[in-house]
Amino acid sequence: MWHSLQLQVVTPVFNSAGAQDTPHLNTPPEIRVPSLRGGMRFWLRAMAARYVGDDPHLLRKVENKCLGSTERSSSIAIRISGNPEPASQDLSTYMSEEEQTWIGYLLGQAFTTKGKPHTKAYVPPNREFQIKIRRQHGDDDAVTCALAALWLNITYGGVGARVRRGFGRLRITDADMTLAGWDSETIRTPHLNHYFEAGHTGHIGLEGLPHRSVEALHRVCAEARGEDPKEFQLPGHRMKSTLSSLGESHTISGLSAPLSASGWQEALARTGKELRYFRAQRDEKHTENARGPHIKTKGWKDVILGEGHEMPRAALGLPVGYKDGREVRAFRGPAQNPEQLRRSSPLWIRPIVQAEQWHLFSFAFLNEFLPESGGPQGARVGLFKEGKHKKNITVKNDDIRTTAKEWTEELACRADAFSNGRPQ
User: Fold this and answer.
1) What is the domain partition of the chain in residue ranges?
2) How many helices (H) and strands (E) does the chain have?
3) C-alpha distances in angstroms, 286 versus 294, 295, 296, 299, 397?
4) Other residues' Cβ atoms within 10 Å of the Cβ of residue 221
5) Which of 79, 118, 223, 363 has its Cβ near the most Cβ atoms within 10 Å?
6) Where are its TM segments located (predicted)?
7) Is 388 left (phi over 0), alpha (psi -120 to 50) or beta?
8) Which of 230, 231, 250 shows the shortest CA–CA distance to 239?
9) How far is residue 14's CA from residue 160's CA, in Å, rounded to a whole number?
10) How far apart are CA 268 and CA 167, in angstroms?
11) Residues linked to residue 71 through DSSP beta bridges, in sequence order
């Protein structure tokens, strides 16, 4: 029996139908089942890591049981029905000149030209489609946890590129389902009150999931650890994980004050503007960008051009490119022949709308920034110019917490906390 979920696109989805190594812009965009499953695997691991830690063997056991492997199919089958039509107009068509600037900042180079949005390869907001779900095999616990991973992916994550910066957001608006502890009400994307409460507690965890699904997760994790579910001791937030993990002490979250926005364009533009001002902490006139706001980052002045070594804002993701071939990147191995490492931003920003009122819900995973650090061959951060190592840079694990705390707390007080009163 197939169960139906009705979904709506909230912010533009950049999701390619091509192979992994095919550029997104060369293939038509669509909502893809593999992309949904990829997000579900991430959130299932984040659920399980709270109880089994970062042991890859145990996490793989949980993942295989619920979402399948190369040797075993998933406990649930998923289909997309009525895949939404891709855009017919360039993304910039829907934006003012100022909105293009700040949304372009969020998008990065892949979907912009000279810093402005420039692509038709996306699924536009307000498009609707259906997800069909059917139980395939396995016990109720496996099915329940698979559905919990889907719910978390849509509640906090999304589909496609630039999800951490507010794109690819979906919401479940209606459902016809009764399956393994979930029903048509519990599977829907929660209202604003849910995000308000998560912001009030200061973390994201298993709140919002049906109690039966939390119990199912306990049993699945107990089985993975070879323990009797009745005697399974929940380690809670004390379980250490170097991976993304849900729960108190593993995450930090906050809901912004209401935005002055009438649609997704204004909401994302406000997001991009505040993030840019948040990163550029100094007000200083410069000549290379006479039309832009006169702001610069402390890292540029103190570290890139100066003698400093500490760069807390680098915890927002690496690599970061600067002009004249300069780049701050994570790497390991000898500095003369380094292996470059990517560090995705731990900070996720989600535009939330209810009754035409927009907010930003932000959260960060507080896992280790450089878990492979230590010794001359271990992971570290460095400044490079035209590929040559110039010096090492210090980015501490606590920089993630400090940076996310400042971002969430200041925006909770006022939505223009970082741009207000500064050069425009």
Assistant:
1) 2-86+121-239, 256-413
2) 9, 18
3) 6, 8, 9, 16, 32
4) 25
5) 363
6) none
7) beta
8) 250
9) 5
10) 9
11) none
Residue 29: φ, ψ to 5°: -80, 150
In this prediction the pTM is 0.94
Residues 282-322 have pLDDT tens digits of: 888 766 666 678 898 889 889 999 999 999 999 999 999 98
Question: DSSP for 172-238?
Answer: EEEEE-EETTEETTTTSPP-HHHHHHHHHHTS-SSTTS-HHHHHHHHHHHHHHTT--GGG----GGG
Q: Which residues, 6 or more positions from 127, have their beta carbon under 8 angstroms from its beta carbon?
A: 8, 9, 84, 85
Tens digits of residue pLDDT in 330-355: 999 998 899 999 999 999 999 999 98
Beta pairing class for 380-385 and 388-393: antiparallel
End-to-end Cα separation, the chain, in angstroms: 56
Type of residue numbered 42? F
User: Among residues 319, 291, 322, 283, which one has the least CA distance to residue 304?
Assistant: 322
Distance CA 338, CA 194 (A): 44
- 95 phi and psi angles, rounded to 5 deg: -125, 150
Q: Read off the tokens for 22.
A: 């095919």
If you search the block for the tokens 């995973």, which residue do you land on?
365
Distance CA 256, CA 409 (A): 8
Structural contact between residues 41 and 67, judged by C-beta atoms closer than 8 angstroms:
yes
Mean of pLDDT values over 94-118 = 92
**φ, ψ dihedrals at 369, nearest 5°:** -75, -40
CA separation (Å) from 250 to 47, 219, 237, 243, 387? 11, 21, 7, 9, 35
Instruction: Please tell me the distance from the alpha carbon of residue 151 to that of residue 43, in angstroms, as a whole number.
Output: 9
Q: In whole angstroms, give the CA distance from residue 388 to residue 271.
A: 34
Interatomic CA distance for residues 170 and 140, integer angstroms: 26
Contact in structure between 181 and 145 (CB atoms under 8 Å): no
